[in-house]
Amino acid sequence: MQNSSELELASMRSRALAFVIDDLLVTFIVLIIFWDNIIAVSQNMEAMMYLMKTDLVMPLITLKVLYQAVFVWYYGATVGKIVAKIRVIDANHWGRVSFFSALLRSVGRIFSEMFFYVGFLIGFFNDGRKTFHDFTGRTLVVNA
User: Fold this and answer.
1) DSSP β-ladder status, 86-90 and 139-143
2) DSSP one-letter code for 76
3) What is the C-alpha separation between 19 and 7, in angstroms, rounded?
4) For residues 115 and 127, is the Cβ–Cβ distance under 8 A?
5) pLDDT at position 4 over 70
6) pLDDT band with cut points at 50, 70 and 90 for residue 2
7) What distance in Å separates the CA atoms of residue 10 and residue 33, rounded to the nearest whole number?
8) Domain containing 25: what range?
């Protein structure tokens, strides 16, 4: 548990930087995994769209959920958050996030993305800069 006077909320700018880094990293991993499939259909736009809709969506969502949940639970931050020097804490006791909270947060993050990133915009309109997924996982994002 940490003293609340030592905590400072992460800026939306540092959170955005972490988001971009994490999304690029996960996208790169998916590209590596499915590289042969992508190359095989690269000349046919219809086949590429079919591949994206059928073969890439669920692995991408699964990888994003696992990446976010495991890193936030184990390290308190994803690679992007580590680079941006921010971390995720439990909103109630200001300590480490449980695996269940990290999992709820990462699923909430997928919904935030799916609905035109509205879940992220919520962070601009409350005192804790809490996004939809922060409310879902009962977390706060603070400077590391």
Assistant:
1) antiparallel
2) S
3) 21
4) no
5) no
6) low
7) 33
8) 4-143
What phi and psi, each to the nearest 5 degrees, are found at residue 90? -70, 130
Give how far Cα 49 sits from Cα of 23, 38, 55, 56, Å. Answer: 20, 10, 10, 10
Among the listed residues 83, 78, 80, the one whose alpha carbon sits nearest the alpha carbon of residue 106: 78
Which regions of the chain does DSSP assign to beta strands (E)? 86-90, 139-143
- Residues 35, 57, 98, CA angle at the centre, nearest 5°? 110
**Closest to 9 (Cα-Cα) out of 124, 136, 128:** 128
Which residue carries 């977390």 as its tokens? Answer: 139
Q: What total of structural domains would you count in the chain?
A: 1
CA 89 to chain centre: 14
**CA–CA gap between residue 61 and residue 110 (Å, rounded):** 7
CA distances from 135 to 56, 123, 132, 139 (A): 28, 10, 5, 7
Cα–Cα distances in angstroms (integers) from residue 133 to residues 7, 25, 61, 125, in the given order: 20, 20, 15, 14
* Tens digits of residue pLDDT in 86-123: 999 999 999 999 999 999 999 999 999 999 999 999 99
